[in-house]
Write a sequence for this structure.
């Protein structure tokens, strides 16, 4: 039997707080470093999640991408790459904490490239602006929120890197239940309101993800966390 709504919200927030701590530890321990392979970093983050929280399962594939690989959307699987000394790297992890999914992504900049640092700053700002847009429109649809995120990205001089800007999140395994249903995504083809109940009659909770790319300079960045809570 599903938890009641206040309990679901609290457990989703707790899962995100743990993911946020995990990413803080990634930075503090210097796991993203020049000369390291993307897969090796991903494995170290997996091991760190187990060390900190006893987490052994992730509800989607673990992603660490650097340089040109940061242009690739989630569904692609670019070859492993060594991280460079003046690189940009993003990590996207979906650890499961006590049967609740977290989905958290952040970008790391190695070196002093001002454009890469501007991209990293813009990711957080566009996420915050997208969240405000959601909060200010009780009837906002996936289609409308995607269009706003796309507008914000273009205004800042970037492109969106994927076909959607977020998705449902909840008790594991939501992805198996919802499948490829476009109404599960913040996407141009989803005209349904984001504030609704799902097929099981539970309140929908959403992840907002911002994937910005600069195709000319061949790099991108990523930022994601809960949209509907926090």
């Amino acid at each position: 039997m599903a938890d009641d709504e206040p309990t679901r919200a609290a457990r989703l927030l707790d899962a995100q707080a743990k993911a946020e701590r995990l990413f803080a530890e990634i930075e503090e321990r210097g796991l993203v470093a020049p000369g390291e392979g993307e897969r090796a970093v991903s494995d170290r983050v997996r091991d760190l999640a187990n060390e900190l929280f006893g987490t052994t399962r992730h509800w989607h594939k673990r992603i660490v991408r650097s340089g040109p690989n940061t242009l690739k959307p989630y569904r692609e699987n670019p070859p492993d790459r060594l991280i460079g000394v003046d690189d940009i790297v993003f990590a996207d992890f979906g650890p499961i904490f006590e049967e609740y999914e977290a989905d958290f992504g952040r970008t790391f900049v190695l070196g002093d490239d001002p454009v890469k640092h501007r991209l990293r700053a813009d990711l957080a700002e566009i996420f915050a602006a997208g969240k405000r847009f959601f909060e200010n429109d009780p009837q906002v649809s996936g289609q409308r929120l995607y269009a706003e995120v796309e507008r914000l990205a273009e205004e800042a001089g970037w492109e969106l890197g994927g076909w959607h800007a977020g998705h449902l999140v909840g008790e594991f395994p939501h992805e198996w239940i919802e499948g490829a249903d476009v109404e599960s995504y913040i996407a141009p083809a989803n005209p349904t309101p984001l504030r609704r109940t799902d097929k099981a009659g539970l309140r929908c909770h959403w992840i907002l993800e911002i994937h910005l790319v600069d195709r000319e300079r061949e790099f991108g960045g990523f930022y994601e966390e809960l949209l509907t809570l926090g």
